[in-house]
Specification:
alpha/beta; L-arginine/glycine Amidinotransferase, Chain A; 4-stranded mixed beta sheet; 3-stranded mixed beta sheet; about 25% strand; globular
């Protein structure tokens, strides 16, 4: 057994211990560090061209380990994207193209959420409203992406389009516990009391506990997506971005009170964990990157760590995790 698969087993057992006092659902959302089949991405369109070199850096890392499915709206766009990657030296290996019309390149948020009951896996399609229209971006084509992906994979798609949930604001430990930012959920689904939010999310996602983060930067168009501030690194440990912001401090206190170990990460926590690897944001500084790499290797032992220049994505308000959508192994 490889080191990282052993870590998956240990983390899963730890998670079972954490939820032993609560009634666990018969289904769950797998954690990102569990075995994966692929990563899905939506190629940046004409208004997002600045992100394309960063996409190439991410794809080049992921394709060394697993398949990358890339959505383009047209065949012409697909051909241009393939030529762009080829010019940057990326091989065709482990890249699968799909012509599916999209409105944006942020597939984390409009893409599928996967669930499993241990014997079968299916997709959920929640409402996506273009971050409540905060960017002026369209969303009607994006909102259909989970249905199209489900058809490609031949799996059931559960319609939950009466409630807005962006996957960037859903961080799970694979054992029934999730973190979400309250500001985002409250803004996207106004007028609902917190108890109703929790009932909807717990019933649909098989959760036993939700830990809320409160507050967000006023310039954050996602209204505080949790994947920009805190990430589970195993079932019982959370890495929090060490920004000095009181939002993160309060979340750390709440997590520790709930029995979680907190790690402070001096960089961008918007990384992608894959099948044998981690892709994270480089600080473009040798000493700083050496520290980040050591931390990520400690968080995810046995995985290859790739620190890539994805600052063009950060400049538009997101990160590596925001533009990727991981598909668990069925």
């Amino acid at each position: 057994m490889s080191t990282y698969k052993a870590q998956v087993l240990v983390a899963a057992l730890a998670g079972l211990l954490m939820t032993s006092t609560a009634e666990a659902a018969s289904f769950r959302v797998p954690a990102e560090w569990e075995p994966q089949a692929a990563v899905w991405m939506q190629w940046p369109g004409k208004y997002e061209t600045a992100m394309r070199p960063a996409f190439a850096n991410i794809i080049g890392s992921v394709q060394r380990h697993e398949n990358v499915h890339i959505l383009t709206s047209t065949l012409k766009e697909q051909q241009a994207a393939a030529a762009f990657l080829a010019k940057r030296g990326l091989p065709e290996k482990n890249i699968t193209w799909h012509q599916i019309p999209v409105d944006n390149a942020w597939m984390r948020d409009n893409g599928p959420i996967y669930l499993t009951d241990g014997s079968s896996t299916w997709i959920q399609n929640w409402a996506f409203t273009g971050w409540d229209g905060s960017t002026g971006a369209g969303y009607r084509r994006d909102n259909k992406v989970p249905v199209r992906v489900g058809a490609l994979l031949g799996v059931e798609v559960e319609d939950l389009s009466d409630y807005v949930l962006e996957k960037g604001n859903l961080e799970v430990n694979g054992a029934g516990i999730a973190m979400l930012n309250w500001d985002c959920q409250n803004q996207r689904n106004p007028g609902l009391p917190k108890a109703e939010h929790e009932k909807i999310l717990k019933d649909a996602l098989g959760l036993t506990e939700i830990i809320w983060s409160y507050g967000h930067h006023p310039d954050d168009l996602t209204t505080g997506h949790i994947d920009g501030s805190a990430r589970f690194v195993n079932a019982t440990t959370v890495a929090i971005a060490d920004t000095g912001d009181e939002t993160e401090t309060r979340l750390a206190d709440d997590l520790e009170a709930a029995g979680f170990k907190v790690e402070w990460y001096p960089g961008d926590v918007n990384w992608l964990v894959g099948d044998g690897y981690v892709v994270a944001m480089s600080e473009l500084d040798k000493a700083a990157d050496s520290d980040l790499e050591a931390r990520l290797q400690r968080y995810f032992p046995g995985r290859e760590v790739y620190l890539v220049d994805a600052w063009a994505i950060a400049d538009t308000g997101g990160g590596i995790h925001c533009v990727t959508n991981d598909q668990p192994e069925f």
